[in-house]
């Protein structure tokens, strides 16, 4: 997909025959480069991916929870003593 816009942009630097040959190589319906390229299958319900996401989110949230708890503990008496 990245090469095709470059090919269209630089079509004036190629001969007409070279441009048509390259265009045919990329966009041929039966055996073109974009039609025959294998794509990786999409993983639907992989437990390893879900576990990794949960672990990374927990690691990111844990310091915030600890610091917030410490701040609440330190300043819990501030409101009651200032009245």
Task: Give keywords.
5 helices, mainly alpha, 69% helix, single chain
Report on this model:
- Belongs to the EMC3 family.
- This is ER membrane protein complex subunit 3.
- It is found in: Membrane.
- By secondary structure, the protein is mostly helical.
- The protein is built from five helices and no strands.
- The chain has helices at residues 3-9, 16-27, 33-36, 47-74, 76-81.
- It is elongated.
- The mean pLDDT is 79.
| Secondary-structure class | mainly alpha
Number of helices: 5
What is the 3D form? elongated
Which regions have little confidence, pLDDT < 50, spanning 5+ residues? none
The count of DSSP E runs of length 2 or more, i.e. the number of strands, is: 0
Radius of gyration: 29 Å
> What is the count of distinct domains?
1
SSE arrangement, N to C: HHHHH
Helix content, binned percent: 55-70%
How far is the N terminus from the C terminus? 68 Å
Q: How much β-strand is present in the residues?
A: under 5%
Average pLDDT figure: 79
Sheet bearing the most strands, described?
Answer: none
Short description:
It contains five helices and no strands. It has 83 residues and is mainly α.
Write the layout of secondary structure elements.
Elements: H1 3-9, H2 16-27, H3 33-36, H4 47-74, H5 76-81
């Amino acid at each position: 997909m990245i090469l095709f816009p470059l090919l269209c942009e630089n079509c004036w630097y190629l001969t007409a025959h070279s441009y048509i040959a390259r265009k045919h190589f990329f966009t041929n319906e039966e055996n073109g480069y974009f039609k025959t390229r294998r794509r990786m299958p999409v993983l639907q319900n992989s437990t390893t991916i879900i576990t990794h996401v949960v672990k990374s989110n927990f690691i990111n949230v844990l310091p915030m929870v600890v610091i917030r708890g410490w701040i609440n503990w330190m300043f819990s008496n501030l409101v009651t003593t200032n009245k």
